[in-house]
Design goal:
Elements (H helix, E strand, L loop, with lengths): L7 H14 L11 H8 L3 H14 L2 E4 L3 E4 L4 H25 L2 H17 L7 H19 L2 H15 L11 H18 L2 H19 L1
Keywords: DNA-binding, Transcription, Transcription regulation
GO molecular function: DNA binding; DNA-binding transcription factor activity
InterPro entries: GntR_C, TF_FadR/GntR_C, Tscrpt_reg_HTH_GntR, WH-like_DNA-bd_sf, WH_DNA-bd_sf
Length: 212
């Protein structure tokens, strides 16, 4: 497939990132550099640069004299990721209660309504649900206004995606997640910072229980 003029290693990193998220490259699998380079019609230099990017994101693990492997997320890894996400996003929710305008809170409400539609039986799309769920959380971080916090969360969420199909796909978890989002929105709309903080912590605690 043709690559755009953007830095070649960035294009390759994004291509591999999506293959990992889509399970075309499964957790624990070896990444065949020669095969991928031939497939894309590129040298191994930009491919190796791309793998360094993915390794920095935690999606790829480099093993001495063995090459690159898609990262396998252990239960401990997952617990640590969820704990950090809970701390960072609950703090962001409290900030949003204090700083966000009414119009910005309505943006979150609109995103949540799309999320509800994506989860509707027979008409929804689970892949769209995943995308909207992430958009909701990232918009909350935007409104909190700390770019370093958002960057940390974005990187952590990439690692979390390695396990996403065994969390939200568990029976009943999507419906439970929606109820938790409603509680978060209610607290945000009422501008009750501590309640919003606790609602987000509950959301991640339940998510971890479903994912572990």
């Amino acid at each position: 497939m043709p690559l755009t003029p953007r830095a070649l290693y960035e294009e390759v990193a994004e291509l591999l990132r999506q293959r990992i998220f889509n399970r075309e490259l499964a957790p624990g699998s070896w990444i065949d550099e020669l095969k991928i380079a031939e497939e894309l019609g590129i040298s191994r230099t930009p491919l190796r640069e791309a793998l360094k990017v993915l390794a920095a994101e935690g999606l790829v693990t480099m093993k001495v004299r063995r090459g690159a492997y898609v990262t396998e997320v252990s239960e401990q890894d997952l617990r640590e990721v969820y704990e950090l996400l809970s701390l960072l996003e609950s703090d962001a929710a409290a900030v949003v209660c204090e700083r966000a305008s009414d119009a910005e809170l309505r943006e979150l409400q609109a995103l949540h309504q799309e999320l509800e539609q994506a989860a509707a039986p027979g008409t929804g799309s689970r892949e769209r649900f995943f995308a909207l769920n992430e958009a909701f959380h990232l918009r909350l971080l935007d409104l909190a206004g700390n770019r370093w916090r958002k960057q940390m969360v974005t990187d952590l969420r990439k690692v979390m995606k390695l396990n996403r199909h065994s969390s939200l796909f568990k029976s009943g978890r999507i419906e439970e997640s929606l109820r938790e989002h409603r509680a978060i929105l209610a607290a945000l709309s009422a501008r009750r910072a501590q309640e919003a903080r606790e609602a987000v912590k509950t959301h991640f605690a339940n998510g971890l229980e479903a994912a572990a």
